[in-house]
Target: ABC transporter ATP-binding protein
Amino acid sequence: MSEPLLTLERIGKVYGAKMALHDVNFSLYPGEFIALVGMSGGGKSTILRLIAQLEAPTSGEITFAQSDMVTRVMFQNDRLLPWLTNVQNLSFKSSDPTQQARALAMLDTIGLADFANGYPSALSGGQKQRLALGRALMADPQLLLLDEPLGALDALTRRKMQASIAKICHDQQLTTLLITHDVEEAARMADRVIVIKDGTNIYEADGAKGQDAATIGTVAERVLEVILNPATPARG
Ligand SMILES: Nc1ncnc2c1ncn2[C@@H]1O[C@H](COP(=O)(O)OP(=O)(O)OP(=O)(O)O)[C@@H](O)[C@H]1O
Model:
């Protein structure tokens, strides 16, 4: 296997009297799509903030394959700029023709080629999330962090977006870390699923990305069982 893009070793994070994380250990490999799942308050978002270097761990070490790694985060709230057109949200109004051409090509990749000159307010929830993904991808990130990006979408749109995001990440060979409460979403989208509970990674299993519904269901059931019963072996 290739060298990891990043490795978390014995990571701890304390906020005042609250120990949010203790002893988190895992690596993320180039081109891999991993999902962190677990109940609310388990520490998933804290791990994401540490990997994004928005905060530092209290203990332990995160090793990055390179110091100047380009990382982008996509949140549940799309954070689009409503006063810019959709294509300008990708090009940031750059007058550079190369950047403009890239923005148009990206709209095509995310299936919004017909919406270039409209505004985000006229897009559906799923379209807004695709535009937010396109904006993150414009930076050519080596690492994409997805923090519950589909949490606000209705069930059908969410399902479509799972397939569309997984495909875009796969086609671009992006290294991706997804945070979700939804075990089926994790099983469907990820190569590897890691369960975070009470501030530590208690279990990991191969995901069922691109596989049939029965396999996705089996992985999701197993992961759910582990989340509900922590006294389970550490590898599925
Ligand atoms: N800035 C902070 N100050 C104090 N406590 C915090 C802070 N950030 C997180 N915590 C605490 O750390 C624990 C882990 O929080 P975190 O948001 O990482 O969990 P999570 O698994 O992402 O939850 P959710 O799924 O609800 O987003 C929680 O008990 C939370 O209250």
Notes: Residues 15, 18, 20, 38, 40-46, 181 surround adenosine-5'-triphosphate (CB under 6 Å). The chain has a mean pLDDT of 91. The chain has two domains: 1-69+142-236, 77-138.
